[in-house]
Amino acid sequence: MTGTRDLAGDAVVWHDVECAAYDLDLPIWRELAETAGGGPVLDIGCGTGRVALDLARHGYEVTGIDVDPELVHELALRARRRRLSIRTAAVDARSLQLGTTFALAIAPMQVFQLMGGPQGRRAALAAVRRHLEPGGLFAIALADPYEGLADSDWIPPAPDMREEDGWVYASTPVSVRREGGSAVIERHRQAVSPRGEVSEWMTTISLDLVTPAEVEAEAAPLGFAARERGWIPESDEWTGSTVVALEAT
Question: pTM of the predicted model, to two decimals?
Fold first, then answer.
């Protein structure tokens, strides 16, 4: 590792490298916020604010939550710099207790596939339901990196890259493998200092392989009714996603 920077532990940097450039889903979240009548929006897994800041710029009242306090703190800083009002909380969606309700809750970019299996998803669904107004909507983005492919056909995409303060960061998905009911994605991360010194390591993320129909079935006993699904298009860099729409009954 170069210098005194904890590159591997810098959650803000790597969240921005791997997520900040993604914008294909922003139109659907804006559309859903408008459909919700301009009521308050809960952004689950907000990270550094990719979606929350966009919705706030469009005039919506937004609360962003994430399990990582560093990411939530960074979102709060960015909101203040932009003179946007966004409430934040470092909490787990599976044990959510905010003491308020929302017209719309969203779980962008496969965050709902990080809940740790059926039990975790049901806990999150129940917690979100308690925070939705009657008729409120919970919209969940789901993706399957294997959809339409055999395991051997998966081709790594180009690296996600970002330059900041003279540092160049790159993160490349190098493999995806099935383990039980999960897709395990391995990424190669690399940081190059302004002096050209290179640090690199591997990191792993595990996504639940769950279908829209399975989520809808899990949600039904918890006070949700499935509504028409949406779709976020794929690109050369990003997998497409199905957006499950669950109405609080």
Answer: 0.92
